[in-house]
């Protein structure tokens, strides 16, 4: 595999902000939050409407990396919070989601939309493209669910790897004079299964610092000290193993 593919669990590779599950040929993205700019505009924050185009370019690049390895996804999974607003579907959400889904349908056999807590009324959008929203997606020992709710016993049956989003993991690093925040993956255990928390595909917000110990998902324990942090380098597009959270915290304290 290329250096841009980092194996974070058996058969599961991080490629930039995406996950590639080799056994099922599934490509997973989480938390696109299409329509986020509209909320910022409503709050008086002026940002250009580049998010959808940026997301498509990121996905194009990841598909390019797969193609270089002679790989092509059978399934592309959108693991929750495809849209941003909790209420009605905004015109920006309609337009952005339509562009993304039409693009994805050209590059895989199946587009699977896993419902997230932001995805109110999303079924109306999905129906336009003859798609359905599902509470989770299970294939080849992998379970993808958004992470805002606990999985059922039926969902966990036969599963070895769980992939969630929802928490938008990121990490803030400092050299004393400068601070930078990077998207990251968290990898640990949940009920003796490997749990992978995926960063947000949404480009405007880096995410919530995993070193602060504040998490939304009921799957994450209050202490994730044993979870490993895999940092996404936007410049090289490599995913780097930074080790356990507790070691990073200890090093930050001694800096």
Give a description of the structure.
The chain is of the alpha/beta class. The protein has one domain: Purple Acid Phosphatase, chain A, domain 2 (4-Layer Sandwich), CATH 3.60.21. The chain is 24% helix and 29% strand. It has six helices and 16 strands. The strands form two sheets. Strands 8, 9, 10, 11, 12, 13, 14, 15 and 16 form a nine-stranded mixed beta sheet that branches. A seven-stranded mixed beta sheet has the order 1-2-3-4-5-6-7. Strand 11 (169-174) and strand 12 (179-190) form a beta hairpin. The protein is globular, with a radius of gyration of 17 Å.
Class derived from helix and strand content: alpha/beta
| Poorly predicted tracts of residues | none
What is the terminal-to-terminal distance? 35 Å
Domain unit count: 1
The CATH architecture category equals 4-Layer Sandwich
Summarize the main sheet.
Answer: 9 strands, mixed
State the share of residues found in helices, binned by percent.
10-25%
Q: In percent terms, what proportion of residues is strand? A: 25-35%
